[in-house]
Design a protein that fits this description.
It contains 13 helices and 8 strands. The chain has an 8-stranded parallel beta sheet, sandwiched between helices. Helix 5 packs parallel to helix 6, helix 10 crosses helix 11 and helix 11 packs parallel to helix 12. The radius of gyration is 21 Å and the shape is globular. The model has no long low-confidence stretch (mean pLDDT 96).
Length: 357
């Protein structure tokens, strides 16, 4: 480095300019995070919430959700698992993870500053033993969130929670779906019930709340392929994990965007879509899955879809002493949240972060 360049750097970043952030966008982000004394809230301080969002207590069944754009919601229910239970502890595990966000450097968004969001707690279940009743409680809760004009982002819980959520979201018009998972979850009855976590999307189609021709399932693999014929017969697009390296992520993203089109889209992310090397804490791990980097890139490539809701499911923290699974789950929840500011309903809102993008 020559002397003039070093002198210029010293003038720009030393002395009275030592704490100055010159980039307009980065300065706007820092202005939301760093106080006048030059510090920020410690990540280990305060009450833990999903993505460190403000906590908003809700009085059910007459909730006041006024002023919110997004409600982060725990759904601690795993009565429909076929193997290892424990995802009822998923919401609590994600709440304990610190330092997720608040800035998405790829999408250049700070959703907590561009949106009005809150962690509104958990679905108020009437019974811990009643699967059908729990599904009804979920549907009623999501319907109340929708009635307030708020986007629900839910944390399960097993994947059966997606069925009552879709029943609420698709009540007036079937929605499309981007489903990232190891399993298609379009199976039929199992051990006397059709409402297990391996069949929510078959039921959602048959209920008329999910449009199979606007549904894409990504990352599918494992030994249960014989259970998923409904996906093909109904018109869903299925991309197996084995196909993805040859296709390349840009092609997968482009196909997903073509399939869902411009209509309302639900994003469902099962943590077992990730290879168990990255997320062993789940009920039905399948090797050969996505890396965390691939999953992040996939979700980030969806910016601009008309997202109307989403979920992150199947984190069972007791099977992972490292907390890596909960960490990955919280990050994927943040990536889904980061899509919301780009949804058509928020186009043109602006704000200090959005305007400086």
């Amino acid at each position: 480095m020559d002397d003039p360049k070093l002198a210029a750097l010293r003038a720009r970043y030393s002395g009275s300019n030592e704490a100055v952030i010159h980039d307009r966008h980065f300065a706007a982000v820092a202005g939301r995070m760093i106080n006048e004394s030059g510090t920020r809230v410690a990540p280990f301080a305060g009450m833990p919430t999903l993505l460190d969002a403000p906590h908003r207590p809700v009085a059910w069944p007459s909730p006041d959700l006024s002023g919110l754009d997004v409600a982060l919601l725990g759904v601690p229910m795993d009565l429909a698992v076929s193997n290892r239970n424990g995802s009822r502890f998923g919401p609590r595990a994600l709440r304990t993870i610190e330092r997720i966000g608040p800035y998405n450097h790829v999408l250049k968004t700070m959703p907590g500053a561009e949106l009005r969001l809150a962690d509104i707690g958990d679905v108020p279940f009437r019974s811990r033993y009643d699967l059908a009743g729990s599904h009804a409680d979920i549907e009623q809760t999501i319907a109340a969130i929708m009635a307030a004009g708020v986007i629900p982002l839910s944390v399960g819980g097993d994947h059966s929670i997606s069925l009552p959520i879709l029943r609420a979201l698709g009540r007036d018009r079937p929605v499309g779906m981007i489903h990232i998972d190891a399993h298609c979850d379009t199976g039929g009855p199992f051990d006397g019930t059709k409402f297990h976590h391996g069949g929510p999307f078959r039921q959602a189609v048959l209920d008329g709340v999910l449009d199979p021709e606007r549904t894409i399932q990504i990352g599918i693999r494992g030994s249960s392929e014989y259970l998923w014929e409904f996906s093909k017969d109904s018109g869903m697009t299925v991309i197996h994990a084995e196909e993805m390296p040859a296709m390349g992520l840009p092609a997968v993203i482009a196909k997903a965007r073509r399939v869902v089109g411009d209509g309302p889209v639900y994003v469902s992310f099962d943590i077992d879509s990730l290879d168990p090397a990255f997320a062993p804490g789940t009920g039905t791990p399948e090797i050969g899955g996505l890396t965390t980097r691939e999953a992040q890139a996939l979700l980030r490539g969806l910016a601009g879809i008309d997202i109307v809701g989403g979920d992150l499911v199947e984190v069972a923290p007791q099977y992972d002493a490292t907390t890596n699974t909960a960490h990955a789950g919280a990050q994927m929840l943040f990536e889904i949240l980061s899509l919301v500011p780009f949804a058509p309903r928020f186009a043109g809102r602006g704000g200090v972060i959005a305007e400086s993008r």
